[in-house]
Specification:
Length: 253
């Protein structure tokens, strides 16, 4: 799906990009459900856990991203690392496709903001308090959530590129004036945002049901659908728009 928007600029239409974002919703909801299998498990985040330098989570993130970097994950512009310092280079040959994005995309990584809201605000809303000792699984599951959310937010590069290409006459004056507010207004579609919030809430309700053979389960969802709607309304969509603005500000460089 991402490859469709990524591989060829003729494929880059707003409908295609929105379709890719809709598919990514499924991934995000399923990964939150997966993380909700574990309680908060706070020792995962303890800076003095065992003999790692830093927390078990930081260790898992650094080592996983190092491996993924070697196999080319970060050659995709929308994949941004959480631990970018000293990442090993990719060992796989680069793709032959011509780049679709302006090179400025590579300099926009807002993962610090994503890390901050995920651990400080979101996680306590959907993981129950407690400790079941599954720290390694918890850390991998956090990284899965972070990566899916980050990819969705940095996909804003493509949204911005396609909006710019569709109406350069509207965007160019605001870019030349470096007018953040003006750009934000141009790229915002409130009706689309309302639809997204409703759809992800429904997905969380459907995907998070207990499926039973005899009845429809107990009606309780594995992740509260209103939390998923809030995740999109308060963090994912505003940050996707921030990526779009940052990209557009540099689009004519
Ligand atoms: C992504 C888009 O741009 C903006 C951000 C949205 C989002 O992150 O889902 C939705 C609508 C727009 O306000 C879009 O237009 O689809």
């Amino acid at each position: 799906m991402a490859a469709a928007a990524n591989s060829n600029s003729d494929n880059l239409t707003l409908d295609k990009v929105r379709e890719a974002l809709i598919r990514q919703e499924d991934t995000i909801v399923f990964r939150l459900i997966q993380r909700a299998n574990f309680p908060v498990n706070s020792p995962t985040y303890d800076e003095k856990f065992a003999s790692f330098s830093g927390s078990l989570l930081q260790f898992v993130v650094k080592e996983t991203e190092a491996l993924q970097s070697k196999v080319g994950r970060y050659e995709n512009p929308e994949e941004q690392p959480f631990s970018p310092e000293n990442l090993p280079p990719s060992l796989v040959p680069p793709q032959a496709n011509p780049p679709v994005l302006h090179p400025a995309a590579a300099s926009i990584n807002i993962n610090e903001k994503i890390w901050d809201f995920y651990f400080n605000q979101l996680l306590p809303l959907f993981a129950v308090p407690g400790d079941d000792g599954n720290y390694a699984s918890t850390a991998s599951s956090d990284l899965d959530c972070l990566q899916a959310i980050s990819r969705r937010i940095h996909y804003g590069y493509y949204v911005a590129e396609v909006k710019f290409k569709d109406a350069p006459q509207d965007y160019e004056p605001a870019i030349r004036a470096q007018d953040r507010e003006g750009l934000m207004k141009l790229l915002t579609f409130e009706a689309v945002e309302e639809m997204v919030k409703k759809r992800v809430e429904k997905k969380a309700a459907v995907f998070g049901q207990d499926v039973c053979l005899v009845d429809n389960g107990n009606g309780k969802c594995k992740v509260d659908p209103s939390v998923v709607s809030r995740l999109y309304g308060e963090w994912i969509m505003p940050l996707t728009k921030l990526v779009q603005v940052e990209y557009l500000l540099r689009r004519l460089d």
